[in-house]
Sequence to fold (387 residues):
Amino acid sequence: MRQQTGLWLMGARGSVATTAITGLLALRAGLVRPVGCVTERLDIDHSVLPAWDDIAVGGHDIVSTPLDKRAEHLAAAGLIPHSVVSAVADGLRAVDAELRCGYHPVTHTGPQAAAVARLTRDIEDFRTRNDLARVVVVNVTSTEPPVPALPEHDDLDLLAAALEDPQRTVLPASSVGALAALTAGASYVDFTPSPGIKIPALAELAHRNRLPYAGADGKTGETLVRTVLAPMFTARALNVRSWAGTNLLGGGDGANLADPAQARGKLESKARGLARLLGDDVTAPLHIDNVATLGERKIAWDHVSFEGFLGAQMSLQFTWDGYDSALAAPLVLDLARLVSAAHADGQTGPLAALAFFFKDPLGTDEHRFAEQTRMLADWAARLGATE
Fold:
């Protein structure tokens, strides 16, 4: 007998979340094919995964635009077909009723502990109200900058005490959300490069509460291509001299990443992956530009300079042009299904086998896409297996 799973989205009214929710409703209604949904292609016993009909959706956000209006905006931008938005409008309004106000460090008053408690209650109430076996919290909020390490980040007791101090902001918003998820007994996925669950004390809490988690920073476009191509150069003993990248994007993501402080985490996440694949000695400049006229589109251009036999100088260039939310949304649904199955299977800690989905994977240093694909397939095939 299947059990209901909750998908709780942090940033539930953003472009990625709205696209994921609209897509889930359309999949349930048989309006679209599961293009981009990796779980549909895995050679496994699919009964271990929650079906589309088994996933209830709720979430937090600090903006109040209703989901059906957000979906209409995305349709006007060319991201979602108007016919699909019209067909699932009632479903979007039903999901919107499950959304709650998120945590904003600027408007919040009082200790952060109070914010954690409120978010935790929201998740617990969602689970009870919908009679859910488990909840997967997925962070798809705007990217935050890295934060300086504090002693409280390494010790749960110190962290708990600091959170009670109304004069301190000891955790970034993403980590407040992660702490609430873990406190509520929910598994967690960080689809962003934000600090989130990477605070050591939160990873400790996940182990203590026997919860699985996955992340970080969803791999949807340019970095996906890099993790395929970079191992090719290494395997063919070709010397990569430099790998330069330019990202052009609009929408809310472009506006957010126009701030160098906000973009820092994203740039570092991308850079770490390439360094793991090619080494730290490869020159790899990368920058992000906000181009408002692109709307929901994202364009990435890469130039790879490499050296061949007898010092021959050659290059490779590629351009990636796509809707990032359309690439990310099915992965969010995949991760909800897989992490829910891992939770049901009794797995805890970082799910290294889900590196396939991330730029900066937790629990492993493996960045080669072919190896990540093998890891995912092998792991998924063992889900629900009896000893």
Notes: The first helix runs from residue 15 to 28.
